[in-house]
């Protein structure tokens, strides 16, 4: 590891099934991007790679290998020579691959043939930033062990997606939607992703959601949380929980993001505009 950029973490598909121990699922926030990177280098889709926040990652190969970078379109260089993202790139021992800053989006994923074989905890090699489980954030000088490359080939090249400046996020009503006045209308207004967001969740700014009179001062015992839960604290400004979320929470959940919309949230920079959308029929059941 030569440079890490703002934050570089080892991530695979996470460790679901441990909520009873207070452990969130973790794993890559943009699951399709990690799976694609692994396919490009011939790995199993679940192999561990590097989740890189806003570029700046530079790695030196200790042995020959194949790498691929996915997520938003981003400049990728080998020894200063542009090679592009979303395609497999062969490295000789001693060569350095560098990832620039993406023009849109937030997180890029680097896969290496054989997968990154750091020690697993609870069946996963993912870093959980909330519970501090899994390998520590990468630092310059770290050496990443690799597994044996697959004998099968990977994909050749694919087109990157572009992270939009405004997201429309599909949701379903949460278990406490009835605590709020016109929740579908309130959530459908435009929200802004704030700089206080991270892998635990996205904090949003906008017109606060108002509780109904019956629940205006009511307290809620802690209850279980899922990835994608849209929790609303007393200030009325939603928090959308991502993969490193706490497993319980004491504020009402007004909605839950559909799984298909979660990868887009992983690429939402501070300042991104966001609106929640669902069929009005489901709120009137």
From TrEMBL:
Parts of the chain that traverse the membrane: none
Source organism of the structure: Amycolatopsis decaplanina DSM 44594
The record's annotation in NCBIfam families points to: urea_amlyse_rel
Matching entries from InterPro entries are given as: CT_A_B (IPR003778), Cyclophilin-like_dom_sf (IPR029000), PxpC (IPR052708)
Query: Which superkingdom heads the taxonomic lineage of this protein's source?
Result: Bacteria
A molecular function (GO) term: hydrolase activity
Q: Does the keyword Plastid apply?
A: no
Name the chain's protein. Allophanate hydrolase
Pfam families attached to this UniProt entry: CT_A_B
The record's SUPFAM superfamilies line, in alphabetical order, gives: Cyclophilin-like (SSF50891)
Carboxyltransferase domain sequence ranges: 20-285
Annotated keywords: ATP-binding, Hydrolase, Nucleotide-binding
């Amino acid at each position: 590891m030569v440079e890490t950029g703002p934050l570089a973490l080892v991530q695979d598909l996470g460790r679901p099934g441990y909520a009873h121990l207070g452990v969130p699922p973790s794993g890559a926030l943009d699951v399709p991007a990690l799976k694609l990177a692994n396919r490009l280098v011939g790995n199993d889709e679940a192999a561990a790679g590097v989740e890189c926040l806003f570029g700046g990652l530079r790695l030196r190969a200790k042995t020959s290998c194949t790498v691929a970078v996915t997520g938003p379109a981003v400049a990728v260089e080998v020894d200063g020579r542009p090679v592009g993202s979303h395609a497999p790139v062969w490295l000789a021992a001693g060569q350095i691959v560098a990832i620039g800053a993406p023009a849109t989006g937030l997180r890029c994923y680097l896969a290496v043939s054989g997968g990154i074989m750091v020690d697993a905890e609870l069946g996963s090699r993912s870093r959980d930033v909330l519970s501090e489980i899994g390998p520590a954030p990468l630092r310059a000088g770290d050496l990443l062990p690799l597994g044996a490359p697959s004998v099968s080939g990977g994909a050749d090249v694919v087109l990157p997606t572009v992270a939009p400046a405004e997201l429309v996020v599909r949701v379903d009503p949460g278990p406490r939607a009835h605590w709020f006045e016109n929740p579908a209308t309130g959530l459908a207004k435009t929200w802004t992703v704030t700089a206080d967001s991270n892998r635990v969740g996205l904090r949003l700014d906008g017109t606060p959601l108002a509780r109904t009179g019956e629940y205006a001062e009511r307290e809620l015992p802690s209850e279980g949380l899922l990835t994608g839960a849209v929790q609303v604290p007393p200030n009325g400004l939603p928090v959308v929980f991502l993969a490193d979320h706490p497993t319980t929470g004491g504020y009402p959940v007004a909605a839950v993001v559909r799984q298909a919309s979660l990868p887009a949230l992983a690429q939402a920079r501070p300042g991104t505009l966001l609106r929640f959308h669902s069929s009005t029929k489901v709120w009137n059941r």
